[in-house]
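Incident review: delayed structure delivery

Summary: a single-chain prediction request sat in the queue longer than the usual turnaround. Root cause was a stuck worker, restarted by the on-call engineer. No data loss occurred. The affected request and its eventual output are reproduced below so the record is complete for anyone auditing the incident later.

Affected input:
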Amino acid sequence: QVQLVESGGGLVQAGGSLRLSCVASGRTFSMYAMGWFRQAPGKEREFVAAIRWSGGTAYIADSVKARFTISRDNVKNMMYLQMNSLQFEDTAVYYCAARIRSGTDYDLTLPNQYDYWGQGTQVTVSS
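Output delivered after worker restart:
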């Protein structure tokens, strides 16, 4: 089991910044990757960013690539999402996810590729 807890969400004006954090506990040694997804009301869960736990290769959605950065700290079992130049359209609940399944050719942009999820943290951007 892996437990994930997000933090750092809140209310921010358009153009502002937030840094989301996700702390993992439990069987963290078995993690292959972690990711951030978001879900706005009435919309499907959307990929934001992902990072491979070993090596740190990062993937960012095109829609946020110029503004968001993902990073991780293997020692602290933490993952971060730095969000700059926030826009109203970034308003959503942001979820942290972890994958412990091994394998090849898996697509980290798909929610079903992850095994554990956090409860989410609300990000609200006022226009």
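Verification: The chain is about 0% helix and 50% strand.
Action items: add queue-age alerting; document worker restart procedure.
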